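step=predict obj=AAA family ATPase n=397
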Amino acid sequence: MDPVRNPYAPGAGQRPPELAGRDRELEQFDVVLERIARGRPERSLVLTGLRGVGKTVLLNALRSQAIRKLWGTGKIEARPDQSIRRPLASALHMAVRELTPRHRDPDHVDRFLSVLKAFALRSGGENAKLRDRWHPGIDLPAASGRADTGDIEVDLVELLVDAAAVARDVGVGIAVFIDEMQDIPAPDVSALCAACHELSQQALPLVVVGAGLPHLPAVLSASKSYSERLFRYIRIDRLDREAADFALAAPAAEEDVTYEQAALDALYATTEGYPYFVQAYGKVTWDHAPAVPITADDVKVAAPHAETELAVGFFGSRYERATPAEREYLLAIAALSEFTDGTVTTSDVAVHLGRKPSSLSPARDALIKKGLLYSAERGTIAFTVPHFGLYLRKYAT
């Protein structure tokens, strides 16, 4: 098969040729956009799921929907050691710039940009790191008395309310997209929840769309008790059989290539419908298939090559980030989760390692911060990456 014509895209956040299995989420977001633009009350959205299920891809697709409806949009990726003040200021600056050509009152836009500048300039003093400084290119003086207290909760509420007012003048809205939302520092999470609460109460045309790991709802709930009612939570999971087959077959058909049913059976059994794996195994299978149609034998020949690529890149790079103590913890979870759904108790890990649970807390907490583990319920732990336990049992023991 011609590798140049290979349609599959197993990249981080890279949109696959066919965004299969996400029609319901796309349709729901269309309704949200229309309701908000008409002044109807709506909740912000939170997408949750394991790594490799396509959260970032879907987040980008939702942003494209907002852009098509002429909304102002901005996107950030949260980091555990960085306040969202500076990146959010940049995202809102971009969103308002998209609306400015259609705004009838340039003075209103300028007033908002002055407030935005005041908000952003509170992101760091003279000794702040370069990445924490913001150089907005706004040729206006910073406003005084609005979004400039230094208290992120007060400032963010005022800023988002003012941004929504600019969008309302144009008859549309602003959508802010936040990837890796579970990594937002705790004070900023509280501020974001408070701002979304205010926007919802006033039915203002600004929506936040976040994406993060399965424990993100618990992170939000720990910050503000009302967050359970503040956001609409959408769990993004692996593809069902029909959608996984379509994700493989539809792009191939565009290149006049077909699959035997047995080949699709073998690919689903291997990938279990996880979108990243569907693309990864589809790409390698295409490259190794000698002719049309692609057969189960082609999948069998290609699978070890795909597995090796994943072991080095998708899995190996994550394992290499762990310290020796953290790797010991990971291997214990892998051993214990072989015959479970992947979730184990922290007490079982301690027993397996012959250690006191308290002595393992630093390793566990570091692995959660690195995004390798998550805890959806107190006393439990699981991998954030599908098949990670299988990789560890095969390659790291």
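step=describe
DSSP finds 16 helices and eight strands in the chain.
step=end
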